[in-house]
Amino acid sequence: MLACVILDEMYTLITQINTNLIADSGLCDDSPCQNDGVCSGDEDSYTCDCPADFTGTDCETDIDECESEPCENGGSCTDGSNSYTCNCVAGYTGNDCDLHGISKRGGATVFNAALTFVGTDVLPTSEGGRSGVPAFVIFVTDGIQSGSGAADAASVLQNRGVTIFAIGIGGTVNTIKS
């Protein structure tokens, strides 16, 4: 009977050792998740909870936010960490290059270019502008006229019946006379 008790105790001891070894050798012990993914599981299976910018079984694939081609009008996309940046071609602006913009020189908008843009892209009658309807444009600027030809561009718009309001918010406000 003593032999049975010893064998029974040995069996219990071996079972406990095996259970502890299995518990300690779970698949997460090898840190299979990449890119700061968090592993959860047991000795048979695991899953990785991936950070926002990664996907895949082991978080091994960087999600390319540019894959959906978010940049419009010929803009190029630069993938970032859970973000993207559009580099717009001349004449376009906005997060997705979806806004027809005004050309810039040295960081300042060129008032002449803004007036020309309004005349050719915003209010052209050939592009569905409303002929015979009073039109006006309000410009809010830094008050400093940059570029040349603003008076000529303003005259073209005024001859088409467009009223121009230019609001300068800077220290110096230039006046366009036609």
Short description:
By secondary structure, this protein is of the alpha+beta class.
| Contiguous runs where pLDDT drops below 50 for at least 5 residues | 1-5, 18-24
User: What is the domain tally?
Assistant: 2
What's the multimeric state?
A: single chain
Largest sheet: 2 strands, antiparallel
Helicity range:
25-40%
Average per-residue pLDDT, rounded, comes to 74
Neighbour order of strands in the largest sheet:
1-2
The fraction of residues in strands falls at 15-25%
H/E element sequence: HEEEEEEEEEEHEHE
Task: Return the structural class.
Answer: alpha+beta
Number of extended strands:
12
CA radius of gyration: 34 Å
Note the total helix count: 3
The separation of the N and C termini measures: 119 Å
Shape by Cα distribution? rod-shaped
Protein model, in words:
With 178 residues, the protein is an alpha+beta fold. The protein folds into two domains: 41-101, Laminin (Ribbon), CATH 2.10.25; 103-168, no CATH class. The protein is 25% helix and 25% strand. The protein has helices at residues 2-24, 111-122, 150-159; strands at 38-41, 46-49, 54-55, 61-62, 76-80, 83-87, 92-93, 99-100, 104-105, 108-109, 135-141, 162-168. The chain has a two-stranded antiparallel sheet. Strand 11, helix 3 and strand 12 (162-168) form a beta-alpha-beta unit. Helix 2 runs parallel beside helix 3 (150-159). The longest helix has 23 residues, at 2-24. It is rod-shaped.
